[in-house]
Design brief:
Helix content: over 70%
Shape: globular
Order of helices and strands: HHHHHHHHHHHHHHHHH
Largest sheet: none
Number of helices: 17
Number of strands: 0
Strand content: under 5%
Distance between the termini: 10 Å
């Protein structure tokens, strides 16, 4: 039985999650800008899933290994902190370089580095929240983390529009055709990525390990082989609830990737009647969706805090199913709208879904796994994100023209249907009341 953990104040829970602001600002910049950057550099619409392979592949390789390694790490700064810092530094450097890409291959290569860095940071951060908080505060901790995701992505989506409102020219382009407001947004992200994570680990450091915990970790075998065996053993012994969550996540993440990859192209067609990523109308579509995307992330931020009492009372599963259904309806509505201000309406549903996605599944997971294996199971849980992404990248190019008519609006609607399937799958997950012993 692990020792009781100190109860943190709401302020401390906020401080420990500030690092997610920088981490998720980076993800928001990818979601809102990589498809237009790829289009400017000459990518075909049907190739977008292949160009987004960096995220799922690096997540599949990096997060389980980093998770297992962080469970076994004994450093003066703790088990998780070294990975935060390494990942944050690499992420900042990649964000700084990304908007200077002069060719498609360069942008794709930098995205691989950026996603690897994000994944080095992400999994230990999830484990850090679970490590640091008493089980009674898990819902508040993970939903606060979700709220920072919403806030960060609100700011990242909105940053080009804010720069325009401050007087920058929306049509000013660099030598490679990339808007200057995009470049400045990435530079802001580079600063935030490191600064916010540094703040969190300084304000709320990891709990020191007891002598018994240190002895247990020191007795474990080290090296790549031992790490891979630990991952394999954890997969074989995976709790039932975690296996059930995998079904939900297959539908959920296939849907979200469809949405992120094609929503700007869908809005460009339905609202601005353009398919040319180098046109002024497409740049206007990017700004318009950036504002709508900021709105859905603001909804996610507010909703994440509002969900805490509902999650405690009704359970994370029921709340998550409702939010996914709302997001599915929103995605199904979006392609049929032709006014730039009407696209804000379905963003309410998408925001509810996103706010729940980044919090409630982790509440369900934390109740289902043994605490001494938190790192490796958080890494394996991420595999349930990236495997659907890989499946999407491998399958969508084959059905994009034949089944979906080469129309990005149909891809967004496919995402909506799959979110509804995820909502149904969530209702079949049975989470135990007590954390199982290993």
């Amino acid at each position: 039985m692990s020792a009781a953990k100190p109860i943190l104040s709401p302020r401390q829970i906020v401080q420990m999650n500030v690092g997610f602001l920088g981490l998720q600002f980076s993800f928001g910049l990818q979601q809102g800008n990589m498809s237009p950057i790829y289009g400017i550099l000459g990518a075909d619409e049907s190739a977008l899933p292949l160009l987004y392979l960096a995220g799922p592949v690096t997540g599949l390789l990096v997060q389980p290994i980093v998770g297992a390694m962080s469970d076994r790490t004994l450093s003066p700064r703790g088990r998780r902190t070294p990975y935060f810092l390494i990942g944050a530094i690499l992420c900042s450097l990649s964000l700084f370089a990304m908007p200077y890409s002069s060719a498609l291959w360069m942008a794709a290569a930098l995205l691989w580095i950026l996603d690897a860095a994000n994944n080095i940071t992400m999994e230990p951060y999830r484990a850090y929240v679970s490590d640091r908080l008493d089980p009674s505060q898990h819902a508040q901790g993970f939903l606060t983390q979700s709220a920072f995701t919403g806030l960060a992505q609100t700011l990242s989506y909105l940053s080009p529009s804010i720069l325009v409102w401050l007087g920058m020219n929306r049509d000013a382009l660099d030598a490679n055709g990339i808007p200057v407001i995009t470049r400045v947004s990435f530079l802001i992200g580079a600063v935030l990525s490191f600064a916010t994570i540094w703040y969190s680990i300084r304000r709320v450091p990891e709990l020191p390990l007891s002598e018994a915990q240190r002895a247990e970790i020191a007795a474990l075998k080290t090296g790549l082989g031992a790490t891979l065996r630990e991952i394999w053993d954890a997969i074989r012994e995976m709790p039932t609830a975690m296996r059930q969550l995998a079904v939900m996540k297959l539908f959920q993440w296939y849907a979200m990737v469809c949405y992120w990859q094609y929503v700007i192209h869908a809005v460009a067609r339905s609202v601005f009647d353009t398919t040319d990523p180098n046109s002024a109308a497409f740049r206007e579509a990017s700004l318009a969706y950036g504002q709508a995307g900021a709105f859905y992330n603001l909804i996610a931020c507010v909703a994440a805090f509002a969900m805490v009492p509902f999650t405690r009372r009704l359970g994370a599963g029921k709340v998550h199913a409702f939010c996914l259904a709302a997001g599915g309806v929103g995605m199904l509505m979006l392609p049929g709208l032709h006014d730039r201000w009407m696209i804000f309406l379905p963003m309410i549903g998408v925001g509810l879904a996103w706010g729940s996605i980044m919090g409630n599944p982790y509440v369900m997971l934390a109740s289902s796994i043994p605490p001494q294996r938190t790192g490796v199971y958080m890494g394996i849980f991420n595999m349930m994100i990236v495997i659907p992404m890989l499946i999407q990248s491998a399958t969508l190019p084959f059905i994009y023209r034949s089944w979906l008519g080469g129309d990005p609006r149909q891809v967004v609607m496919l995402g909506g249907a799959l979110l509804l399937c995820a909502a149904v799958a969530t209702l079949f997950v049975r989470v135990p009341r007590e954390v199982p012993a290993r």
